[in-house]
Amino acid sequence: MFNNKIISVDFCYGSIHDYKLFLKSNTLINPKLELIADSGYQGLQNVHKNTLLPI
């Protein structure tokens, strides 16, 4: 089965795009980790090659 874990949580006041909030958070992610994200993180695969996004 899958061994999924939440590795980081961030929030802001007001409205901000998910990917923009991620970039602003300066979260460092081990390149070996596989990230599974929703479509709000389009562009994440440009900074973390091991990313799965919905088509």
Describe this structure in words.
- This protein has one helix spanning 18-25; strands spanning 35-36, 51-52.
- By secondary structure, it is mostly loops.
- The protein has a domain at 29-55.
- Strands 1-2 form a two-stranded parallel sheet.
- The longest helix is centred in the middle third of the chain and has 8 residues, at 18-25.
- The chain is globular and about 35 Å long.
- It starts with 17 loop residues before the first helix and ends with a strand.
Counting DSSP H or I runs of 4 or more residues, the number of helices is 1
Distance between the termini: 23 Å
Strand order of the largest sheet: 1-2
Strand content: 5-15%
Low-confidence stretches: none
Q: Quick one: biggest sheet?
A: 2 strands, parallel
User: Would you report the number of β strands?
Assistant: 2
Percent range for helical residues? Answer: 10-25%
| CA-atom Rg in angstroms | 12 Å
Following the backbone from N to C, one meets helices and strands in this order, namely HEE
Question: What shape does the CA trace take?
Answer: globular
- What is the average of the pLDDT values? 88
Helix/strand class: little secondary structure
